[in-house]
């Protein structure tokens, strides 16, 4: 099973648009001026993942980031493992058509 999603809010970046609290009211609250605070420690329940991800993606100033073993969102390692990502090894059987063409 995968690690639970974890998020962080940088309040110094928040511009008080209130979008996060609209999408995920269980995770963000707004003060009297509309600036967000996080509710809880940033751990997101699997069932709330979509709503929180929407809040993260819709925040106009990118004040919300996803944390985790791969670091903040956008710095994740590729989904394909290095072994899968390598080019297939060409053998003489594979290059037969090219050999034929060159002749
Ligand atoms: S969506 Fe972003 S800018 Fe708006 S209140 Fe939430 S954290 Fe602040």
TrEMBL record:
Gene this protein is translated from: suaB_2
Region Disordered, as annotated, extends over 67-103
Instruction: List the PANTHER family.
Output: FERREDOXIN (PTHR36923)
Q: Which InterPro entries match?
A: Fe-S_cluster_ET
Q: Which cofactor does it need?
A: [3Fe-4S] cluster
Q: Which GO terms describe its molecular function?
A: 3 iron, 4 sulfur cluster binding; metal ion binding
Please state what the protein is called. Ferredoxin-1
Keyword set for this entry? 3Fe-4S, Electron transport, Iron, Iron-sulfur, Metal-binding, Transport
User: Pfam families per the record?
Assistant: Fer4_15 (PF13459)
């Amino acid at each position: 099973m995968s690690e639970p999603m974890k998020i962080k809010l940088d309040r110094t970046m928040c511009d008080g648009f209130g979008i996060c609290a609209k999408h995920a009211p269980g995770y963000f609250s707004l003060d009297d001026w509309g600036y967000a605070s996080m509710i809880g420690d940033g751990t997101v329940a699997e069932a709330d993942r979509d709503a929180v991800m929407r809040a993260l993606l819709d925040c106009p100033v990118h004040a919300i980031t996803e944390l985790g073993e791969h670091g903040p969102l956008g710095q994740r390692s590729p989904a394909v493992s290095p072994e899968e990502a390598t080019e297939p090894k060409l053998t003489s059987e594979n290059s037969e058509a090219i050999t034929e063409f060159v002749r």
